[in-house]
């Protein structure tokens, strides 16, 4: 990335971001060198937030800077009413994005231009369906969060009973979900003999391509079994591991873009690290991602297990105790010696032993890298953002390590403490008495059980849709109940001290 160091004390003047003003950007800020008017769309991306723009869209932008993949431009899409505001912001600046890299040695900025349009956000998703039915679209990619794939967290199976799924099965031509819209578009493509597209998940899910396949085929089967068979046979769903820490955008991020002289209503900040490991399974072709730094590998599973268990699991280890103690940022959590020691001990003793090495790095070396990234003081990633949707994230990132530890007869007490910290967090009150605003799609239910668990800790583990049969796993259940009782009686720091020194 070409560098221009931000100077918050200097008035650089402001340039409103847009195609017509790219040449007016301050010297030193990298910008598209390709003719954006010549780009044509090859990808529709659903769930267009900060992570996508700092990750997949950046890789594509780097290819375009090399004069490649000019027929793979991105059209953004959303299926939630709230996505309309993002659409308005991005269309007003010709879908350009200022990417600001937050390196401890200094900040730098570039303008990315791989996205060329954002579809109207509509009930029934007619515009989205029509765009995905266009044969020029060869990839439909998604970032819809870990919990957005209608998966039962206890079984890993498809949640056919969800009201959104029931709606889409009954009304396949006017779907409510991204997956229903993809199915409707694939029906049009099949009937017109336009061929399939690749479904590419860019979410933090183990086997994310397999999960997307399960959701799409299972939903299609509820209304059109023949179409479901066609999708299963013709479409491809590559698994991938994605990695880049990308904080949410707020007033300070907008002000940071302005310090570079850019008036951007939706800038993105990110760390100085990216990784993307992808299976080469694209039924309708793909950009040469590897020429922009992605890794094409048949061993995605090993990469994703390391990342999901150590990094994503590590995020959950530190976010909940930090939130309870009123620590607002991830770097602030890492500055707390007990929280940092909690991460190190749990990951070394109870997670890393069940993770295989990948080419170039061992699990313990990866833990050291992750700890360094978490501690980056320039990344203003909030503990609240990381703690969001714990019901999906604990189930997906931490409980697999619990099960593997139990199967191996290995320690699980630290992981039990992490679950107890989540239960304590879900009571909705910090140790200073301040209220935790709802922070999970199932917050009301979680809070009710968390309050019951203050006097009956085992009640928390009876949430079988999250914990499955772990309530019957005595080493884990006994440790959990002991830790939760201690958290409520003596507080977070006392519990962390006992674990770290034990």
TrEMBL record:
Pfam families: Mannitol_dh, Mannitol_dh_C. Keywords: Oxidoreductase. Gene3D superfamilies: N-(1-d-carboxylethyl)-l-norvaline Dehydrogenase, domain 2, NAD(P)-binding Rossmann-like Domain. SUPFAM superfamilies: 6-phosphogluconate dehydrogenase C-terminal domain-like, NAD(P)-binding Rossmann-fold domains. Residues 300-480 form the Mannitol dehydrogenase C-terminal domain. Residues 42-290 form the Mannitol dehydrogenase N-terminal domain. Transmembrane segments: none annotated. InterPro entries: 6-PGluconate_DH-like_C_sf, 6PGD_dom2, Mannitol_DH, Mannitol_DH/Oxidoreductase, Mannitol_DH_C, Mannitol_DH_N, NAD(P)-bd_dom_sf. This is Mannitol 2-dehydrogenase. It comes from Sulfitobacter pacificus.
């Amino acid at each position: 990335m070409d560098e221009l160091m931000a100077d918050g004390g200097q008035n650089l003047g402001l340039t409103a971001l847009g195609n017509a003003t790219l040449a007016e950007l301050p010297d030193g800020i990298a910008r598209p060198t390709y003719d954006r008017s010549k780009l044509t769309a090859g990808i529709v991306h659903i769930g267009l937030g900060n992570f996508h723009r700092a990750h997949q869209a950046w890789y594509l932008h780097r290819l375009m800077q090399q004069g490649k993949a000019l027929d793979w431009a991105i059209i953004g899409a959303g299926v939630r009413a709230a996505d309309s505001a993002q659409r308005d912001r991005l269309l007003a600046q010709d879908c350009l994005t200022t990417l600001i890299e937050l390196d401890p040695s200094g900040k730098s900025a570039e303008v990315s231009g791989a996205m060329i349009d954002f579809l109207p956000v509509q009930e029934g998703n007619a515009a989205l369906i029509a765009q995905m039915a266009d044969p020029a679209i060869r990839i439909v990619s998604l970032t819809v969060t870990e919990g957005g794939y209608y998966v039962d967290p206890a079984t890993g199976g498809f949640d056919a009973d969800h009201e959104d799924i029931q709606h889409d099965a009954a009304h396949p031509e006017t779907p409510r979900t991204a997956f229903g819209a993809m199915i409707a578009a694939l029906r049009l493509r099949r009937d017109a003999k336009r061929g399939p597209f690749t479904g590419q998940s860019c979410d933090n899910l183990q086997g994310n391509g397999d999960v997307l396949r399960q959701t799409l085929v299972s939903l299609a089967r509820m209304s059109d079994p023949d179409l479901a068979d066609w999708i299963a046979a013709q479409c491809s769903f590559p698994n991938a591991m994605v990695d880049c820490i990308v904080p949410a955008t707020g007033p300070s991020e907008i002000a940071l873009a302005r310090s570079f002289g850019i008036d951007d209503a939706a800038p993105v900040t990110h760390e100085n690290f990216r990784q993307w490991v992808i299976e080469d399974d694209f039924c309708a072709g793909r950009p040469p991602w590897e020429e922009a730094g992605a890794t094409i590998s048949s061993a995605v599973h090993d990469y994703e297990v390391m990342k999901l268990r150590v990094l994503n699991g590590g995020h959950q280890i530190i976010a909940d105790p930090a939130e309870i103690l009123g620590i607002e940022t991830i770097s602030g959590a890492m500055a707390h010696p007990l929280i940092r020691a909690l991460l190190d001990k749990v990951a070394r003793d109870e997670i890393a032993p069940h993770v295989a090495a990948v080419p170039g790095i061992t699990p313990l070396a990866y833990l050291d890298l992750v700890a360094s990234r978490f501690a980056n003081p320039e990344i203003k990633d909030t503990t609240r953002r990381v703690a969001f949707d714990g019901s999906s994230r604990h189930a997906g990132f931490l409980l697999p390590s619990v099960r593997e530890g139990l199967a191996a007869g290995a320690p699980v007490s630290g992981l039990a403490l992490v679950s107890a910290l989540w239960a304590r967090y879900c009571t909705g009150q910090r140790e200073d008495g301040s209220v935790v605003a709802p922070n999970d799609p199932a917050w009301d239910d979680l809070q009710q059980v968390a309050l019951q668990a203050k006097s009956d800790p085992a009640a928390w583990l009876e949430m079988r849709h999250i914990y499955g049969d772990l309530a019957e796993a005595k080493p884990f259940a006994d440790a959990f109940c002991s830790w939760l009782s201690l958290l409520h009686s003596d507080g977070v720091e006392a519990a962390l001290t006992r674990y770290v020194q034990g």
